[in-house]
Design brief:
The protein is α/β, with parallel strands linked by helices. It has 15 helices and 15 strands. This is DEAD/DEAH box helicase.
Length: 431
């Protein structure tokens, strides 16, 4: 199929797509939409940036447009569960864009803002509800919302939802759904825990797998620079000064680290802001809006935003700190090279992070090319590996030990400590 009109969608949806300039569906859209219009359950495995939001939003809108009457008070007909506020807002915006010519009601609910307006909106009943798990459980516990009328249930970015500790909330929510419903399950990766959850929820699903698990975007040019931690900020400033990097997304490992990077950038008159879990919803929205409008050249984020930021024209992604979870690297660099564009991903690696780099390279099944810079340091393999100038070797006795035990990750002192899953249970702390 080469055109949206070939997929059998409602004319009102085709009109909205035409206004947006969308003519040709992406592979996941052309594979998913016909099956979903038939009412099939679906297991979708796809990277971010492949167009999967439209792949489920369009058939849901088509299905709901054919229903008569309004939803009952305190109910919804379609429920889309998202791991983060940013992604939930992004999904809500997509539904509004595609459904602009349909008379359907929708709401997006998440934590970090007052629940009162959400109670009033959901209490009236909506056709489409996009929610983060924590806030959804809050609304259910307050007896504001019933899930008994759900016709379509979507779990989006399931692997990140489990990483954030929402498994208990997901189980509570799915236990309240009606037996007869259509289920859509999307994840970028499919480890055993997620495969088990999919098997419990889906009924004879159609499987759509667009890219191999844990691969990186084809149009992303990747590179690694080996650098001491103390020189990372100077390296970032130098790259921003001497390269065309008009819209750069920087990922740090911690909230404090993100704020520290922003402080250093602003001091050097680089327009930058941070987005992470300690920021209020209004601060996060302002930062994201400034980044989208190019008022901010740099947005510094923790992994909370690795899949929730959908901004056109991100020219560069910088992994200021390498992530503990290799799959997070894939999601981070997936913020560039979207919608057919190209992009660059640069990673900084200090000696204590080299085991993390090896884990990433095993996961993506390729070596990340090393780039030479004046601040580069030598790697254990020698100057040929790092591209560092002669004289940049550190004495071997000063090198930290990179040995690790299974299931451990580095601390700041070069030792290793057991991994801990992010987040707690599935409670109401929405991210």
């Amino acid at each position: 199929m080469t055109h949206f009109k070939d997929l059998g969608l409602d004319a009102a949806l085709l009109k909205a797509l035409e206004q947006q300039g969308y003519q040709t569906p992406t592979p996941i859209q052309s594979a998913s939409i016909p099956e979903l219009l038939k009412g099939s359950d679906l297991l979708g495995i796809a990277q971010t940036g492949t167009g999967k939001t439209a792949a489920f939003a369009l058939p849901i809108l088509d299905r709901l447009s054919k229903l008569k009457g309004r939803p009952d008070r305190g109910t919804c007909r379609a429920l889309i569960l998202s791991p983060t506020r940013e992604l939930a807002a992004q999904i809500g915006e997509s539904f509004r864009t595609y459904g602009k010519f349909l008379r359907l009601t929708q709401a997006t609910v998440f934590g970090g803002v007052s629940i009162n307006n959400q109670i009033r909106t959901v209490g009236n009943g909506v056709d489409i509800l996009i929610a983060t798990p924590g806030r959804l459980v809050d609304l259910i516990d307050r007896r504001v919302l019933s899930l008994s009328k759900i016709e379509v249930f979507v779990l989006d970015e399931v692997d990140q939802m489990l990483d954030l500790g929402f498994i208990h909330a997901i189980r509570k929510i799915t236990g309240l759904l009606p037996a007869k419903r259509q289920n859509l399950f999307f994840s970028a990766t499919m480890p055993k825990e997620i495969a088990g959850l999919a098997a419990a929820l889906l009924r004879d699903p159609v499987r759509v797998e667009i890219t191999p698990v844990a691969t990186t975007a084809e149009r992303v040019t990747q590179s690694i620079i080996h650098v001491e931690t103390r020189n990372k900020l100077n390296l970032l400033l130098d790259l921003l000064k001497n390269n065309a990097m008009p819209r750069t997304l920087v990922f740090t490992r911690t909230k404090h680290g993100a704020d520290k990077v922003v402080k250093g950038l602003v001091k050097e008159r680089v327009e930058a802001a941070a987005i992470h879990g300690n920021k209020s919803q209004s601060q996060r929205e302002r930062a994201l809006a400034g980044f989208k409008s190019s008022k901010l050249r740099v947005l510094v984020a923790t992994d909370i935003a690795a899949r929730g930021i959908d901004v056109d024209g991100v020219s560069h992604v910088v992994n200021y700190d390498l992530p503990f979870v290799p799959d997070s690297y894939v999601h981070r660099i997936g913020r560039t090279a979207r919608a057919g564009a190209s992009g660059e991903a640069v990673a900084f690696c200090d000696p204590e992070e080299r085991p993390l780099l090896r884990d990433i390279e095993r996961t993506i099944r390729q070596k990340v090319p090393v780039t030479q810079h004046a601040l580069s340091i030598a790697t254990p393999e020698g100057n040929e590996r790092s591209g560092a100038p002669q004289g940049h070797h550190r004495p071997q006795q000063n090198q930290p030990s990179w040995r690790k035990k299974p299931g451990q990750r580095p601390q700041g002192n070069g030792k290793w400590r057991p991994k801990q899953r992010q987040g707690g249970g599935g409670g109401g702390q929405s991210r």
